[in-house]
Amino acid sequence: MFLSVFDMFKIGIGPSSSHTMGPMVAAARFLDRMRASPFQFHGLRGTLHGSLAFTGIGHATDRATILGLAGFSPETYEADAAEATLEGIRSTGMITPPDLPPLVFNPKQDLLFDYGPALAGHANGMVLMATDAQGDVTLSETYYSIGGGFVLTEAELAEGKATDDDGTPIPYPFKSADEMLAMCKTSGKTIAQMKRDNEVARGGPENLKSGTARLWQVMNDCIERGLHTDGELPGGLMVKRRAKGIYDALLAERGMNQSAPHTINDWMSTYAMAVNEENAAGGQVVTAPTNGAAGVMPAVIRYWLDHVPSASEDRVEDFLLTAAAIGGLVKFNASISGAEAGCQAEVGSAAAMAAAGLCAVMGGTPEQVENAAEIALEHHLGMTCDPVKGLVQVPCIERNGLGAIKAVSAASLALRGDGTHLVPLDACIETMRQTGLDMSEKYKETSLGGLAVNVPNC
Ligand code: SF4
Fold it and tell me: Tell me, what's the pLDDT at 147?
């Protein structure tokens, strides 16, 4: 199994990796198929299924799909150009993808939310179709957005493909935490060192260095934008941004030496909330491992850099590599998708990754790192996904703050032990997978249960 650090942490746009980035990526893939086809096309159509339909409006899935069909991508997205393009499509009923002729596409009738049963392959399904001059479908593809911005076709899902892994051999192909620890022991290397060797085998050392530096830059820029932006978030819930107010208050208290010890939790929360408020506003974020859970990792890294005296930015790469190794195990053996296994798979996975990263850069042994990840994940088991109004705001924004606090506590507890512990990480991941299977669909990003139906006036 190989899942690159750049698959786990992808630069993209909010508010959702599965419901915004994934559909945009699927649309781009469909355009490639159209370009490779010998047929002439006249129009485009699409249908959104399962969770993509139920929470698609709140997650801007329709908008992302249309922009993807117009040639936009999550990495290069520009908000102003996107608005102008959408306006043009709405007013003309035509869409002009790059390197394809103008196509008939009326968003209101050509992109439908299907509230019937989900498609068989995954809770997040979508079908894209190209039509001829008579309106008959001449090309069609089913895509599944499986979480974290990953997209598979029906055929890829059926063959069990989980990543873009091209099969090039890597030196440390661990598929479980058990195998990972055994390889650490025989090689004498840390988890980050093994992961680095794997990444270099695929992409070379320079690519890794510049790529991880860019990831941290985008994560930290996102924190900074969130800490300096006020106002109300879009979507109609009238949720006010809070990160800036808390940050300003923390700075003032620190200036007056009035900070109580527990305010360190507020620092972590405000860093995480800054990211998730930016995500909710459709800003640029890094999936970690998803958009909904994008605040946990940056918050813990920033906490470490700003509040732990021994921290150094030189080791952020080790933090990211260790976290990516753990995230890969969770994705490969269970899920990082809220639509598949609830929020335990999103914020729970993010907390496990962040706890592992922090433990590693604070000098933890591989066994302590595995313990840190396990503690963080164990105490998110069973957590449901029930976003109010289908928006990635409530409970998601605060939840990232709490996820960061749990991650730091988990790393700290693990560092106080010797790495021996009762519940192996592999058992915890398997428990998460089984719990996800048992979980009612109401709690898997459909907004049909939990807070989504009990919060008044929604
Ligand atoms: S509740 Fe959790 S899984 Fe669901 S959208 Fe929010 S962050 Fe994602």
Answer: 87
